[in-house]
Design brief:
single chain, 51% strand, 39 strands, 37-stranded mixed β-sheet, 13 helices, alpha+beta, two-stranded antiparallel sheet
Length: 871
C-alpha cells in the first residue's frame, strides 16, 4: 500500500514538474501579447523589447515575467530621445492569474528593474518629454479591458541612472547608481511604504557645478494616501556624504503641480556634522576627530511648485567659534565661523539669493575671512564678494589630512574685492566688472609626479583691476632654470565660472631654460602596460607670450639669445619670428605645432644663416636624415627649409611623415672623406678624384623630401678642370640611388691613354673632347656600392686615338703618292741636296726623278710596314 502511495505521489510530482516546465511555452505568447497591448494602447512613443520570458521556478510559487531590453523612445518634439531603458524588468504574479480569460486583469504583486536609465527633459518652452500618454477623445469611452492591475507588495530598483534637465534654466541633475527598494500594500488606498535608497548626486546650474557625485542615502517610512496623492515623511534618516538630516512634513500632488510643506534639520549640532559634508576620501575618519563648537543645518520649504512658481524656502547653515583637530596632526583649525542663508521669500525663482555673511577660520596666527552675496540667480546672477587673509601653506597638511607626495610651503596673502554680473562675464563686458585688491604668494615650493623637478615660486604678485587681472611679478625656479613673467589676464572670471577661454598677454624672460626641467615623462597604465601619454596643448588658452632667454637647453642643443613670440590658441602654438644662435651661426624659425587632432602635427619654415655644417647635420636627427653626407663637410651653410609632418608622443618629428624642401648654399667648405665610407669608396673607384681638393664654395643644392624619400635636384661641382654633376635620391633609412657624372679631360684616364696622346701633335691633342664618366652610387651610406663606366670610357678613348694615328699616316702616304704620280712635283725644300761621290754622276733631271722615287718608296714602306706591324 505504501509502495503504491509513494508511486502515486511520485507520478503526481512528476506531472506537476512537467506542467511547471511546460507552462512557459503554453502562456508565453499570451503574456507577450498582454505586455505589448498594455504598452502600445497607453503611450504615444516607440516601444521595443528584445523578448518576454515566463518562469514558474524563478519566484515559485509565483509566476515571474521577465522583459529583456525594454526601451521607450519619444517622438516629436523630443524625437529619438530615450525616455526609459531597462536591461531587465521582472514582474511577479500568482500562477492562477495565468488562467484568467480575455478582458480579466492580471494582478501584479511585485516588480524589479536592473541597469535602467530614465531621462526627464523640459525644453525651453517648458514642455516635458515624459508626457507620452495617449489622449482619448471625449466621445470615446475608456476601454473596459485592463490587461494588468496593480496589487504591488514590494519593488526594487538596481543600478538606475536618473537624469533631469531643464533647458530654460540651464539646470541639470543626475542621480547615478540608484539602488532603491520599497515594501507596502499598494492595493490599499492608504499605506506605509518602507523604503531604502542610496545614490550619487551631481548638480549643475548655468554651467556651474555645485555637486559632483555626492553620496546620499535615505531610509524612510512614507505615509502614502493614494486617493489624495499625498506623501508624508514619517520615521526617516538621510545622509549627505556623512551629514545626517531628518525630514518632517509632506509633498502632495495637486492639479497645478506639487505642494510642499517640509522642514529638515541636523539631528545633532556637533561640528562633526560639517566634516561629514566632505567626501570620506578627503576627510578621513571623522569619528576620531576632536571637535568643539556646533554646526547646524535648519531649513523649511513651503509652497507650490508650478510652471511659474517654486516653493518659498529658508535654509540656514551656521557654526560659531568651532574648532577641529585630527589625531596625529600637530595643528588645529580654530575660531571657525560659518553664517550662511539661502532664501526665497516670494516663490519666484529669480528672487532666490545666497548670503554668506561670514566664513572665517585661523591656523596659528594666520586668519582667513570671506563673505559673499549672490542675487538674481535665475536671470543674471549678481556676485559681490570679499576675501582677506593669510595662509601658511605648510600648515595645511599639518592641520588637515591632505594626501600630498610632498607638503606645500609658502605664504599666501589676499585682500580682494569683486563685484560683477554673469551676463557681463559671458559677453566679455569687462567695464562692468569691478575688481580691486591684491594677492601674493612667496616661498612656494611644490614637488609632484607631474613635475620633472621641484618648482619654486620665489614671489608672485597679482593685482585685481576693474578690467583685468594683472600678473605684476612672477619669479620662479625649477632645476637649473629660472623664469620671470609679467602680463595680464582679460577673461579670468569667464574662465573661472563659465568654462570660457582664458585670454592673456605675457612677457617672459629667462637667463637659462632647460626644457627637461619642465617636462616630466607622463605615463598612463593601459592593460597592465605603461605607455607614454602624448603632450597636449591646453584647449582653454588663448594667449600671446613674448619670450627672451639667454640660454635654452633642449636635449643636447644649447641655444643662445633666444627670442620670439608664441601665440597659443585652439590647441596649437604658432611661432613668430623665433630667433636663436646655434652651431656658430643663427637660425630663424616660424611655424606652428598643433595637438588638436589624434596625431600632433607641425609646419615649420627655418632659415639657417652661416651655421656650422658638421655640427648641425650631426646633432639634429631630422637634418641628419635629410642630408647624411653633410656631416663630413667642414664649413658654413646658408639654407632655407620648409617642412611639415606628424609629431610623436614626445613631440619629436616622425621622420616617416615629414615632407618639404631645402635650398642650401655652402660657404668656405672642405671635405673630410675619411669620415665617410661613401666618399672613400668613391675615391677608390674613381682614381683621378681627390675628394679633399673638391671646391664646394658657393655650391647651391635643392632638395625635396616626402614619404621618407629625399630627392636631390642635379647640381654642379668644379674639381680642378673636371666638371661634376650630382643628382639622385636617398631614403631616411639611408638607402641611396645617386648618379655622379664627370666631364673628364683625356689626360686623367691612365698611362695607356697618355702614351697614345703623346704620339699626336699638340694640334691634334687639342681636338680631343672631354670624356663623360658616370658613377652610380647604391647600397646605403654605411655600406655603399659603387659602379662606374671608367673602363669602357678608357677603352673607347684609346680606340679613338689609334684611329686618329692611322688616319694621319694614311694621309701622309697619300700625299707622297700624289707627288710621285705628278712627276716629282713637290716641295723643293724637301729635295735632298747632298750627293754621293761614289756614284756615277747624273744629270739634274735624273737627280730629281730619283729623289721623288725614293720619297714615295719610303712613304709606302712606312705605311704598309706600320700596318703589317700593327696586324
Amino acid at each position: 500500500m505504501l509502495k503504491k502511495i509513494l508511486k502515486g505521489t511520485g507520478i503526481f510530482l512528476l506531472v506537476v514538474i512537467i506542467a511547471l516546465a511546460a507552462a512557459p511555452f503554453l502562456f508565453k505568447d499570451k503574456i507577450k501579447e498582454l505586455v505589448a497591448k498594455t504598452l502600445n494602447e497607453n503611450v504615444n512613443a516607440t516601444i521595443a523589447f528584445k523578448d518576454v520570458d515566463l518562469s514558474l521556478f524563478k519566484s515559485f510559487p509565483q509566476a515571474n515575467v521577465s522583459i529583456a531590453n525594454l526601451s521607450i523612445v519619444t517622438k516629436a518634439p523630443f524625437a529619438n530621445d530615450t525616455l526609459l531603458y531597462s536591461g531587465e524588468t521582472n514582474v511577479t504574479m500568482s500562477i492562477k492569474e495565468l488562467f484568467k480569460g480575455d478582458g480579466e486583469a492580471m494582478n501584479l504583486e511585485s516588480f524589479s528593474t536592473i541597469d535602467g536609465i530614465v531621462n526627464i527633459i523640459f525644453n525651453k518652452d517648458g514642455v516635458g518629454n515624459f508626457d507620452i500618454a495617449l489622449k482619448q477623445a471625449e466621445e470615446e469611452k475608456p476601454s473596459s479591458s485592463k490587461p494588468f492591475a496593480l496589487n504591488i507588495q514590494k519593488y526594487d530598483v538596481t543600478n538606475l541612472k536618473f537624469t533631469y534637465i531643464d533647458e530654460s534654466s540651464n539646470m541639470k541633475m543626475v542621480l547615478d547608481s540608484i539602488n532603491h527598494e520599497g515594501k507596502g500594500n499598494f492595493a490599499a488606498q492608504k499605506l506605509d511604504l518602507e523604503t531604502k535608497t542610496t545614490a550619487k548626486l551631481s548638480f549643475d546650474m548655468d554651467k556651474m557645478n555645485y555637486m559632483n557625485n555626492v553620496a546620499i542615502s535615505l531610509d524612510a517610512i512614507l505615509g502614502i494616501d493614494l486617493e489624495k496623492s499625498k506623501y508624508e515623511f514619517k520615521d526617516n534618516k538621510a545622509l549627505i556624504n556623512q551629514l545626517p538630516l531628518e525630514f518632517n512634513g509632506f509633498i502632495q500632488m495637486v492639479e497645478a503641480g506639487q505642494t510642499y510643506d517640509l522642514t529638515f534639520k541636523t539631528p545633532t549640532s556637533d561640528f562633526k556634522n560639517f566634516l561629514g559634508l566632505i567626501p570620506a576620501a578627503y576627510s578621513g575618519d571623522i569619528n576620531k576627530v576632536k571637535t568643539t563648537g556646533q554646526f547646524s543645518v535648519d531649513g523649511k520649504v513651503k509652497g507650490n511648485l508650478t510652471e511659474t512658481t517654486i516653493p518659498a524656502f529658508d535654509v540656514k547653515i551656521a557654526s560659531n567659534n568651532a574648532s577641529f583637530q585630527y589625531p596625529n596632526l600637530p595643528k588645529s583649525v580654530k575660531n571657525i565661523v560659518i553664517d550662511t542663508h539661502i532664501i526665497n521669500e516670494t516663490g519666484l525663482m529669480n528672487d532666490t539669493y545666497v548670503n554668506l555673511k561670514k566664513l572665517a577660520f585661523s591656523i596659528d596666527q594666520d586668519v582667513f575671512n570671506a563673505k559673499a552675496n549672490i542675487r538674481n540667480i535665475a536671470t543674471n546672477a549678481l556676485v559681490d564678494a570679499e576675501l582677506k587673509g593669510t595662509i601658511n601653506l605648510a600648515n595645511v597638511t599639518k592641520a588637515y589630512p591632505v594626501k600630498l607626495v610632498k607638503p606645500l610651503t609658502g605664504i599666501l596673502k589676499a585682500d580682494v574685492k569683486t563685484k560683477f554680473d554673469m551676463k557681463s562675464v559671458e559677453t566679455s563686458q569687462y567695464q562692468n566688472i569691478q575688481n580691486s585688491g591684491t594677492a601674493s604668494i612667496t616661498g612656494f615650493n611644490y614637488e609632484g609626479p607631474e613635475m620633472a623637478k621641484p618648482f619654486k615660486i620665489i614671489q608672485a604678485n597679482v593685482a585685481f583691476n576693474p578690467n583685468h587681472v594683472e600678473l605684476s611679478k612672477f619669479d620662479a625656479k625649477t632645476g637649473s632654470s629660472d623664469l620671470q613673467v609679467n602680463g595680464t589676464l582679460d577673461n579670468f572670471y569667464g574662465f573661472l565660472f563659465k568654462n570660457q577661454i582664458l585670454k592673456g598677454n605675457f612677457n617672459m624672460n629667462a637667463t637659462k631654460l632647460v626644457v627637461s626641467d619642465f617636462m616630466a615623462p607622463t605615463t598612463k597604465v593601459e592593460e597592465g602596460k605603461k605607455t607614454t601619454e602624448a603632450v597636449k596643448i591646453p584647449s582653454f588658452l588663448d594667449c600671446t607670450i613674448t619670450a627672451k632667454a639667454g640660454t635654452v637647453v633642449y636635449d643636447n642643443l644649447n641655444l643662445k639669445n633666444v627670442s620670439g613670440t608664441l601665440l597659443i590658441k585652439d590647441e596649437a602654438v604658432n611661432l613668430n619670428n623665433l630667433k636663436m644662435d646655434i652651431f656658430g651661426g643663427n637660425i630663424g624659425l616660424s611655424g606652428s605645432v598643433s595637438t588638436k587632432g589624434k596625431t600632433p602635427k607641425f609646419n615649420m619654415n627655418l632659415g639657417l644663416n652661416a651655421v656650422n655644417i658638421a655640427e648641425s647635420f650631426t646633432q639634429l636627427d631630422m637634418l641628419k636624415s635629410i642630408a647624411p653626407i653633410a656631416g663630413v663637410i667642414n664649413g658654413k651653410l646658408n639654407s632655407t627649409i620648409k617642412l611639415s609632418g606628424d609629431l610623436q608622443q614626445d613631440m619629436t618629428p616622425n621622420l616617416k611623415t615629414i615632407s618639404g624642401d631645402l635650398l642650401g648654399q655652402l660657404l668656405s667648405t672642405t671635405v673630410n672623406e675619411k669620415n665617410s665610407k661613401l666618399l672613400s669608396a668613391l675615391t677608390s673607384n674613381v682614381k683621378f678624384l681627390d675628394v679633399s681638393k673638391l671646391n664646394l664654395n658657393d655650391v647651391k643644392a635643392t632638395l625635396s623630401f616626402e614619404n621618407g624619400k629625399v630627392n636631390v635636384k642635379p647640381f654642379d661641382i668644379k674639381y680642378q678642370d673636371i666638371a661634376i654633376n650630382v643628382g639622385g635620391t636617398h631614403g631616411f633609412d639611408q638607402t641611396m640611388n645617386y648618379n655622379v657624372k664627370f666631364d673628364v679631360p683625356a689626360k686623367y684616364l691612365g698611362t695607356e691613354v697618355n702614351n697614345l696622346l703623346s704620339k699626336l701633335t699638340p694640334t691634334d691633342q687639342n681636338k680631343i673632347e672631354n670624356i663623360p664618366v658616370t658613377a652610380l652610387l647604391g647600397g646605403n651610406f654605411s655600406n655603399p656600392k659603387i659602379t662606374t663606366d671608367m673602363k669602357q670610357a678608357t677603352t673607347n678613348l684609346a680606340t679613338q686615338l689609334v684611329k686618329m694615328q692611322k688616319e694621319k699616316l694614311v694621309n701622309q702616304g697619300t700625299n707622297a703618292l700624289k707627288d710621285l704620280l705628278n712627276g716629282g712635283k713637290g716641295n723643293p725644300a724637301t729635295t735632298p741636296t747632298t750627293t754621293d761621290t761614289t756614284k756615277t754622276p747624273t744629270t739634274p733631271k735624273e737627280d730629281i726623278k730619283n729623289t721623288v722615287k725614293d720619297k714615295a718608296a719610303g712613304a709606302l714602306k712606312d705605311l704598309f710596314g706600320k700596318k703589317k706591324k700593327e696586324e
